[in-house]
Amino acid sequence: MTSIEYDVIVIGAGPVGENVADRVVQGGLTAAIVERELVGGECSYWACMPTKALLRSGSALRAARQLPGAREAVTGALDVAAVLGRRDEFASNWQDDGQVSWLESAGIVLHRGQGRLAGDRVVEVTGAGGAVVTLTARHAVVVATGSSALLPDVPGLRESQPWTSREAAAAKEVPGRLVVIGAGVVATEMATAYSTLGSSVTLLARHGVLPAAEPFAGERVTASLREAGVSVRLGTEAVSVKRDQAGAVHIETADGERIEADEVLVAVGRTPNTGDLGLDRVGLAPGAWLAVDDTMRVAGGGQWLYAAGDVNRRALLTHQGKYQARAVGDVIVARAKGEKVDDGSWGRHVATADARAVPQVVFTDPEVASVGLTAAAAEAAGLRIRVVDYNLGAVAGAALHSEGYQGQARMVVDEDGKVIVGLTLVGPDVAELIHAATIAIVGEVPLDRLWHAVPAYPTVSEIWLRLLETYGR
Ligand SMILES: Cc1cc2nc3c(=O)[nH]c(=O)nc-3n(C[C@H](O)[C@H](O)[C@H](O)COP(=O)(O)OP(=O)(O)OC[C@H]3O[C@@H](n4cnc5c(N)ncnc54)[C@H](O)[C@@H]3O)c2cc1C
Ligand SMILES: NC(=O)c1ccc[n+]([C@@H]2O[C@H](COP(=O)([O-])OP(=O)(O)OC[C@H]3O[C@@H](n4cnc5c(N)ncnc54)[C@H](O)[C@@H]3O)[C@@H](O)[C@H]2O)c1
Questions:
Q1: In Å, how far are 108, 274, 405, 430 from 457, measured between CA atoms?
Q2: Residue ranges of the chain whose pLDDT lies below 50
């Protein structure tokens, strides 16, 4: 059987795979990308973009209603059909022509089908009709196959055809009653979206709401969800699920309650897309997350095998996966050309920020924007820290932003280095504020110098000055 040769083969054309391929082509190598569904991946069609489109209109409406003068101009309710229509556009109507054209313009060859490793630097691609094409990589194979929703082992759940994040992101109708299992990022965002769109939502939070964030984030989001009419059940979980013949779903909880709903959304984390990837053909375990070194080389794989994005479990976020993609694309080019590899801390060919400065925005109401370590995580890492809290609603810019602005900020300072290692902001429109904190953490800007970074008056950014004043000089 003949094989087509490329310098680099990328399996998975999500945001991460696309960026890896682009980077290696820009570095002068040839690249092929293998995709079994839509070019653009989860983020474009079933995750980041459509879910944020579902949330945005409700958020804008709430903002207008919090402002005298603007409030009076809002006379109608949310136009659900228009929101869903705008979401469809943001999901490109689940067509990938635009991204396929981009691949062509970037000089990347697309092979459609299921990609499987079939030996050292060999990938077999099985197309829709069953035909198999064999590809060989001269330098590297990069696995960027992403992740899928995890379905917990709850009796009856799988048979009940639950919604996962995919159905929640792409739904054509808003269910009357929605039960959400889980209370992490997907669960809280989708509870916010669907309650705004008119569903009666119940959220089952086994481990608390947003348990990975600073505790006040979960508390504020819980309070606001409840104010919006969402029933948030803390410390409980689904123990059995059944869909009846009329289509209703019956959920039994650990505390013996029975809840009836039209749909049940499972949002309890992710599982790697490595079950059908031929990992056993290269000595690795199918179905496992792919552990990697800082240059994204797979532990226990050949020197030619890399993994980037969700599939390596370092940080399940598009921006962080694309950051890894830039590092891995460049390191493959450097190694192919025999150039020096810059793999020291914060070097060009490593993703140092994955461990120390990952920003994330949860688009709930209020928004939760964070970067770096929470106080609990910093303590667990053995750092000697000081925690500085400040009421975000007390800065002048917040009072101007909206009536009764409520928010909270926390800065975590490493007392030995006198630098910030974590910052969390909770409040309306804090999303756009977090990048300043990312720069302060990545740049390891000393607190003494931060006093000279003066926030403009009257903006919500004045929180920076208030946090410094509270810390003391
Ligand atoms: C509901 C939801 C909302 C989210 N919102 C945000 C957000 O607002 N911001 C953010 O930063 N992150 C968000 N995320 C996370 C983000 O979607 C992921 O981190 C991101 O999609 C990971 O990109 P990736 O390229 O690694 O994987 P994916 O986007 O999953 O792409 C992997 C691609 O590989 C393909 N593939 C898999 N196996 C094979 C195979 N064997 N052969 C061929 N092709 C294969 C898949 O079809 C897919 O196209 C969200 C996630 C969810 C679930
Ligand atoms: N705005 C964003 O950046 C954004 C939005 C959505 C998703 N994402 C990414 O997608 C990934 C997946 O999100 P997710 O919400 O599925 O995972 P997650 O890890 O954020 O939350 C899962 C939650 O489910 C809980 N849980 C686990 N098993 C459970 C069970 N059997 N019953 C009840 N609860 C259970 C966990 O305690 C956890 O709180 C995240 O890592 C996140 O980074 C990002």
A1: 47, 51, 17, 16
A2: none
Distance 149 CA to ligand 2 centre (A): 9
Distance 189 CA to ligand 2 centre (A): 10
pLDDT digits (tens, 9 = 90+) for 393-447: 999 999 999 999 999 999 999 999 999 999 999 999 999 999 999 999 999 999 9
Ligand 1 pocket: which of 163, 318, 434 to mutate (most atoms within 8 A of CB) = 318
Residues 287 and 140 in one domain: yes
**Is the CB–ligand 1 distance for residue 11 below 6 Å?**
yes
Determine the straight-line distance between the first and last CA of the chain, rounded to whole angstroms: 71
- 301 and 384 assigned to the same domain: no
ipTM value greater than 0.85: yes
Residue 441's SS3 state is: helix
CATH code (residue 383)? 3.30.390.30
- Asked if residue 283 and residue 135 are part of one domain, the reply reads yes
Residue 105 inside a domain? The answer is: yes
- List of residues 6+ apart from 29 with CB closer than 8 A: 7, 8, 139, 332, 333, 336
pLDDT digit string, tens, across residues 330-378? 999 999 999 999 999 999 999 999 999 999 999 999 999 999 999 999 9
